[in-house]
Here is the input.
Amino acid sequence: MRLLLRPLNSPVSFPPAAVGSLTRLDIALPAGSAGGDVDLLDAVLARHFAHGWEEGPDDVAPSRTAYVGSPEVRAAFETELRTLLPAARVNADMVEEENWAEAWKEFFTPVICGRHFLVLAPWMQEEQRTQRIPVVIKPKTAFGTGHHASTALCLEALSDLYERGRVRAGARFLDLGTGSGILGIAAAKLGLRGDGLDTDPEAVENALENRAGNGLAPEGLRLRIGSLEAAEGAYDLVMANILAGPLTDMAPRLAGLTAKTGAKPLLVLSGILDTQADAVAAAYESCGFPEARRLAREEWVALVFEGGAAESDSGAFQGCLCTPGAYRTMPESFSRSPRAEVLMRLYDAASAHFGPCRWWPGDSPFEIAVGAVLTQNTAWRNVEKAVARLREAGVLDPEIMNTLSEAELAELIRPSGFYRIKAARLRGLLDFFRSCAGWEQSRDKAGLECLRACDPDSLRSDLLAVRGIGEETADSVLLYALDMPTFVVDAYTRRIFSRHGFIPADLPYDEIREFFMDALPPDTALYNEYHALIVRTGNTFCKKTNPLCRQCPLGSFLDYDVE
Here is the structure.
């Protein structure tokens, strides 16, 4: 006897955690029933029982045992069973209900899916350390914990497509029948962005909880109640882990939702019994899809439809979260650089773990420039406090701030530390801005619009001449406040890339900056996100002492652990 999980999403009832009564349903088929009838019985069970069922031996009289707490679910199950398998017999008994929340803890084990994913329950996050991307799922009413073959096959297909560069961070996906949200969460953790749809409100509620538990932003995975009618626009990848019948019926509509990113769009379809795979595949081939690649486990099959185009060396730059697809047109000299390929693999690994960083925070370019000075030799949380005080005082405007004395400015930025020194540096930066050509005529001084017309190299040299403005601060102002393509180097950059053997630890700042800018295309969004990912990686894993190499998303690129 073993506990199985259902292979699709449908409205179901799940036993509550409190102790009460359940109905035990013992379902039996006649002795000698054909294998197709057994498969059909499992499919019917899968439609109605999220928490699983017990499976008896199939060699004589196939039997199954399920537990149900809702009369409505029991009635729907028995009605469908009588229609599809009239020879089946059902006996019902009342039983005492277990504490299902605790029972899950005994049953739920980590699940490895493909080369990238490890599915965990929330109580396992601290005890299960891995190089794989953790997908944290709280077992509740909705289907999808990775234990069932249909879900595992989808995750393996997604992992494989990502590994081969067929889908990249920034691509748009649809997770139809999202259930617990497991497939959408996995895709979002690879840096993809998309929609998760389910007709079951309880499933969407569970998916929302799991999205939050994985630290994902709503814009990375939008979750809504509905089916195909709720889908918006076109998608680079469609994943649907539902039933063979609905998949067959919706083939033309699914075809209309796919974007032509290559020769053909990408689809991953699952929840299909091996006896049904030919019919589902034929329905999609008739809509113009190529022959499907089949992944099989137990009696379940996933169909993966993918085109043969879009495999090119330039794909290394298609993964940038900030400007999806912008690197397809980059010069071949960039795409063929071995250093660029390695740097982008590191980028993709960090991006898959952290998702979009959206750094640097600030309401205006001037505020960002102020923050770049305040963050010198202090933690960002202290900068946030100082900026909040400036905002409350209404002085985050260069003309208004210029009316303050250094003492008044120093008092406002006291939380940032070294506040007298930083007040003097802010005064020097203000004087520099006001001296720039076109400043007096500029209508948007907080936006520093007159500086955007300057040559970046010349402007950088001028900034470095301002007392107290070093290379990191100057590059931060150029990149984050003025949207100019320059790579910011900080202590985390030096630490991570020297530990990985790319650069000597004592290499001068400008040479480290050139290391990146000589290899990567001059793209502001790429430099922005790359530096943000370096900061997140350094702060979380690549610590000055006792680094967490085995947990770090870049740890797999090391041949050893840093001591």
